[in-house]
Design goal:
The protein contains eleven helices and twelve strands. With 269 residues, the protein is an alpha+beta fold.
């Protein structure tokens, strides 16, 4: 039970932020991926519930981490790591991370950007995000320096695909479960997780207003006209090439299946 209460508390803090996932594709389906977090509301809550007085100076940070430079700086240490770990770190080369924090004005923002030349480079980009945050923390830009919530900066594990002129964003856990069921396997933990999820939703009910004012936004821009979008609430721009979908955390917590699959089909020409 204590674990459930802890999860509830962390969930309340985490979802009091705005998250944006943005991908801009070029003619060759390369481009720029960006994931940004606005945790300012969370910082404000932490500030209001902290000690009434404190002699500690307010933190003010504006830091840009260029991972290609970091990989060069620590290349000798990285060379001693197992080959698989070196390969994982090499995938961060085209990433940058920008952090802004101003405790006095309750500003706390993170953004991570990755440039890519071909679509396959972002197929599993969410797996790289935790590594990005961990490296940032090791350089003094995380848990100890960044303040509350830095340990919670994690992205949902998703898989991106582009086949038959259709871009897909798939929930990794749901996809794995579907694949396992297709092989006749049974997920024995599913019932327990569902029960905990129902209990968690009950605990979060009194925070509905906060959840409704915090959002997850998906924005995808393509080199071709959009033919259709799987989610009826997604918006297509006037030029027909950008899809935007905005959903509040309250709705997401009530029905996590909403983002299990998000597909955008493009025109052939």
């Amino acid at each position: 039970m204590k674990k459930i209460f802890l999860v509830a508390f962390l969930s309340i803090v985490f979802v009091s932020c705005n998250v944006q996932e943005r991908i801009l594709f070029d003619e060759n389906m390369g481009g720029t991926y960006e994931m940004s977090f606005d945790l300012s509301a969370m910082l404000e809550v932490a500030s209001k519930n902290g000690p009434a007085t404190s002699d500690k100076p307010k933190k003010k940070i504006d830091t840009l981490i260029v991972f290609s430079e970091m990989l060069t700086q620590f290349k000798d240490s990285i060379a001693t790591l197992p080959p698989k770990k070196q390969e994982e770190l090499a995938k961060l080369e085209n990433m940058t991370m920008h952090m802004q924090m101003d405790e006095e004005n309750n500003v706390f923002k993170f953004s991570t950007t990755k440039t890519f030349n071909q679509f396959s480079e972002i197929a599993f980009v969410s797996d790289q995000m935790d590594e990005v945050f961990n490296m940032a923390k090791n350089q003094g830009v995380g848990a100890k320096s960044a303040g509350p919530g830095s340990d919670m900066l994690k992205t949902d594990k998703v898989i991106y695909t582009f086949e038959n002129n259709t871009f897909s964003r798939l929930d990794e856990k749901a996809k794995n479960l579907k694949d396992a069921n297709g092989r006749g396997e049974v997920d024995e933990t599913n019932t327990e997780e569902d029960a905990q999820g129902d209990m968690l939703k009950g605990m979060l009910a009194e925070f509905d207003d906060m959840l409704k004012n915090s959002n997850m936004t998906l924005e995808y821009s393509f080199p071709k006209q959009v033919k259709s979008v799987s989610n009826k609430d997604a918006k297509i721009s006037e030029d027909g090439k950008t899809v935007t979908y905005n959903i509040d955390w309250k709705t997401l917590l009530d029905d996590k299946k909403i983002l299990e699959t998000f597909e955008v089909t493009l025109e052939n020409q």
